[in-house]
Amino acid sequence: MTNPGFDTVRVGDLLPELVLAPVDRTTLALFGGASGDHNPIHIDTDFARRAGMPDVFAHGMLGMAWLGRLLTKWVPQARLRRFDVRFQGITHLGNTIACRGRVAEKFEANGERRVRLEIHTVNQFGIQKIVGEAVVAL
């Protein structure tokens, strides 16, 4: 955790990038078990193929969890005030995901000094998979 301060952070600053290991079946199975999301599209190849997909693929919420890791490596979880995302693409097996963030705005609300962050994930080809925003108190 880098523990940034409101006075030292500037609009445009980048969060330290979080790059994850390539998505594999074990990761999907473990996330399904931990989250209770046992949708067969994420763990059963035959089911995924019958649904028109080439193979299983990552849960959208797994990508959001990775973005949560990006945020909590930057500030303690208790400072998180808002965290919203939009799913933009499927994360396939073998994709290496990078989580990135940028300080978009500094402001005060409810007596706290806060920053709004633009966050997103991309695969190894630079294709965005998730985009979103977070607000953290500094």
Task: Tag the structure with descriptive keywords.
single chain; alpha+beta; five-stranded antiparallel sheet; 3 helices; elongated
How would the global form be characterised? elongated
Helical stretch count?
3
In what order do the strands lie side by side in the largest sheet? Answer: 1-3-4-5-2
Give the ordered list of helices and strands.
Answer: EHHHEEEE
The structural class is: alpha+beta
Strand content: 25-35%
Low-confidence stretches: none
Helix content: 10-25%
Q: Report on the biggest sheet.
A: 5 strands, antiparallel
Distance N to C terminus: 13 Å
Arithmetic mean of pLDDT: 96
- What does the radius of gyration come to? 17 Å
Number of strands: 5
Pfam family, one: MaoC_dehydratas
Protein name: MaoC family dehydratase
Domain MaoC-like: 22-111
Organism: Paraburkholderia denitrificans
